Each structure stands twice: as structure tokens, then as C-alpha cells.
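Cross-posting from the chemistry board since nobody answered there.

I work mostly on the small-molecule side, so proteins are not my area. We synthesized zinc ion and want a rough idea of how it might sit in this target. Sequence and SMILES are below. Is it possible to get a predicted 3D structure of the two together?
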Amino acid sequence: MLNIYPVRAFKDNYIWVIHNQHYAAIVDPGSATPVLAYLQQQKLQPIAILNTHHHNDHTGGNVTLLQSYTMPVYGPANENIPGLTHGLKESDVVHLSELSLDLAVLDIPGHTAGHIAYYGGKSLFCGDTLFACGCGRIFEGTAQQMYASLQKLASLPDETLVYCTHEYTLSNIRFASAIDASNPALAQRVIEVEEQRKHDIPTLPSILAIEKATNPFLRCNQSAIIHAANQHSRKILSDPLSVFTEIRKWKDTFFQETNVTQ
Ligand SMILES: [Zn+2]
């Protein structure tokens, strides 16, 4: 039985440590210090680093971890990852035999040009692409790439557990509620997430079925989202990609517009 533990780092990052009480794989160690503390406290032997993309808050701990432990570093083949030993692309599989876990690699560009996800054991490690009730900013790719990447993730089984790398859920939900106010599943989620955050409980992992019911970036074919995008752009946008592009742009400035601090 695998445990997947959120090691907290920086303001709102989670570094997921997948372990079986003995061996551990570390997903996106932006900082080494909290990971080293957790490994020592739990007496875990790390066997791999798994990076989803090159941003420093996901890879900044690689070099320090490698000073303490010898292990392979998996990550996107097309990005500059410190200590990378195994460059990965779509349809590669990472075999973590110590954990009896195989992870399939998915190319999901958009947030960065080479961003990848790992999927296996009903779990998805999707970095900064899909968030609970939101999605990553488009820094290097195009809206079209990001939309296709999110659609690819949405096609995984409904029961998939979604391990994103930031605690952004509450602010994401504020935006989602503004554009999808009549969605009862979203209203229910607001109550649950507010309660969790009041007690400093992580809102992750999410479940893909819940994302499909509440995440506006996976609901660009729904009339409420189309309507909101049309109102905001003052244009008639009907295809899901145009709706997605509009609401992704809208969210980039939403918290300035509404004067809510994120
Ligand atoms: Zn990032």
C-alpha cells in the first residue's frame, strides 16, 4: 500500500512523497530542506526524483538532495532539469520497482513548453497544469496547447486522484464561483474547501470527477461558462477553445479587477 504525503514548501507548494514506509519517490522537490526532514523522520530511502517541469519551485531541491542520496532524476526531455538522468516524453513509462509502481508519461505543454505528467496507480501527478478548480498560467505554450493538455488529463478515469503542486484551491474557487454561480456541485465544494482551509488541511488530492463537475477550465462546453466568457469578452464565443482562451486570460487579472487578494 502506497502513501502519498504532501511535504509543504514555500508559501503554498506541495512536494508529494510517494512511499511504502521504506522506499520513496519525490515529486517536484522545489526545496530540499523539508524533504530531507521528512525522509529522515520517516526513515525512508529515496529512490527517484520525478520532475514535471523546469520551474525552480519544482526543481530547486534536486541538487541538494543528490548530495545526500544517489538516485535517478526523471523529468521532461526537452527542459533544463538539474541533475536529469532520464529525459522523458509521451508514452514512456517509469518503472519504480521498489514501490511496485509504473507511471506512464503524458506530454502536457502549455504552462511550460515541455511539461509532463505522471499517471499510474489511479494517481495523476500533473505539476502546474491542472489545479483543483483551476489550471496553470500559460507561460511558454499557447492556449491551444494548454487546452489540449487539459482535455488529455480530463480523459483519464473519473476516479483518478489528482495531485497538483500548489494549494490554490480557495482562490480558484472564488473565480469559478464568479463565472459558474448556479453550479450546485461548485456550491458544495465551496463549503468543503472553506472548512478544510479553516483548519489548514490540504484540499488535495482532488478527484477527476469533481474537477469535471466544478473546474471551469474543464467545462468550456457548458452554457454557463460560455455565457460568462461572452459577457466578459463582449463577443460571441462558441467553440470551447475560444471560451477557454477567454476565461484563462480573464483569470490572469481577475483578482486585481475584483480587489480580492489571492
Ligand atoms: Zn510552474
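Reply from a structural biologist on the board:
Welcome over. Reading the output above for you: The mean pLDDT is 96. The chain has one domain: 3-217. Happy to explain the C-alpha cell format if needed.
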